[in-house]
Design a protein that fits this description.
With 99 residues, the chain is an all-alpha fold. The chain has 6 helices and no strands. Helices cover 71% and strands 0% of the residues. The model has no long low-confidence stretch (mean pLDDT 85).
Length: 99
């Protein structure tokens, strides 16, 4: 299953609308729909992380088969990236408070 279909499946299972997702991600409904229809060539990691957070799933759930991901070592890499992004988000919030 491709990423867009996986996102749609999870979103629908949680009774969340595309409008809600687009609004929370600060993108248009059309852009969000394009993500689910795989019409976007590359979805950025920060966008995948934001989608996963809104859907209350681990970001690897959006990528499909966890066994394949573990076998290839991608989970460990993504965990490291996730940790760094969380740190960056915290730093960004601190900077905004200082301004």
């Amino acid at each position: 299953m491709d990423i867009g279909s996986q996102i749609r499946k999870i979103r629908e299972s949680r009774n969340v609308t595309q409008e809600y997702m687009a609004s929370r991600l600060q993108i248009s409904k059309t852009s969000y729909g394009n993500i689910e229809r795989n019409m976007i060539k590359r979805v950025t990691l920060p966008m995948l992380m934001a989608i996963a957070k809104l859907l209350h799933v681990h970001y690897t759930a959006l990528l499909g088969d966890d066994a394949t991901l573990e076998a290839s070592g991608i989970n460990a890499l993504l965990d490291g990236v996730h940790h760094l992004l969380e740190k960056m988000d915290g730093i960004e919030k601190q900077l905004q408070r200082l301004q």
